[in-house]
Amino acid sequence: MKYEYNPYSFRFFYYLLSLPFLILLSCREEDENAIFPTMGAISESVYASGQIKAVNQYEAFTSASGPIQEIFVQEGDLVQEGTPILAVYSEREKLSRENAEIARAYADLQTNQSKLRDLQLNIDFAKSKMLNDSLLYHRQQNLWKQNIGTEVELEQRQLTFQNSKTAYETALLRYEDLKKEIQFNEKTAGKSLAISRVLESEYVLKSKINGKVYSLPKEKGEMVTPQVALAVLGSADEFLLELQVDEYDIAKVKIGQPLVVSMDSYKGETFTAEVTRIYPIMDSNTKSFTIEAEFTKAPPQLYPNLTLEANIVLSEKAQTIIIPRAFLIDDQYVLNENGDSIRVEVGIKNYQSAEILRGLDTSTKILKPGL
Given this structure, which CATH class describes domain 61-88+203-235? Predict the structure, then answer.
């Protein structure tokens, strides 16, 4: 028997094979475009991104310029407030401090005791001479009363006594002036030395907190300037989240709101935190606000500058009527299976779903608009 090719019978056979797939595809499209509202949980949140920071974390700078003379700690070391981190070498400040020490030693009151002692001897001599001239003057007065001696001798004794008295008073004044001068010079030299030591101490970078040294980007011998960060320090075991929130969402964020946090270093896990601070000024470059949060459920190990993403939960409901957001028209209407619009009252919304407060129940079939 000779077989004859019939293209129509082949097409019919192909149609029979494709029919189940077409029916399945049609049902799937109908399922996607016509649904019933469901009961479930929904939450409204604001997206934020940022990084982990140690509490009191800061970059340490020095006002000095020069090569690093010595580094006293290593990255990861625990330090106390005032612990030296590194020293920058400065020959000028060293010489200035040594010069101030010399001036302070020269101006010291104890060093100048010899000058004061010399004036004290002059005072003692002037006092003795004044007392002696006073005695001779009174004797001459007594002789003059007895008509003994001449008036010229009396006047000479009086003049000698007055000169001695003046010399004694002058010696006292010189002593007091020298003492005040020495005390002034001593204080001035002491202040100059203190200033020199402060200026020199600025070449030694010290920790401002009790914490950990996280970074020392420079090495011994490298030149540094006041514009270069020489270390990063912060708390050893306390951390916070520093997040950026878009200006369009910041009005919704409040202190105390919970966050759900995810991190690249802990993939597949989520952690919780709470908003603790909102900085009141917007970054004009990024058009965002900075907020801080503290963990309420933290990862087992944290490091500064780990990146993270978070959803700040504004509101949530555990059991309510929800529909896909795509089925809403102007956030006010939905289409029933006949294509008629139904007015609904919408509650919580997010990017995927919306809560229906009134106008719809789980028995009403709705259509996706725009079909």
Answer: mainly beta
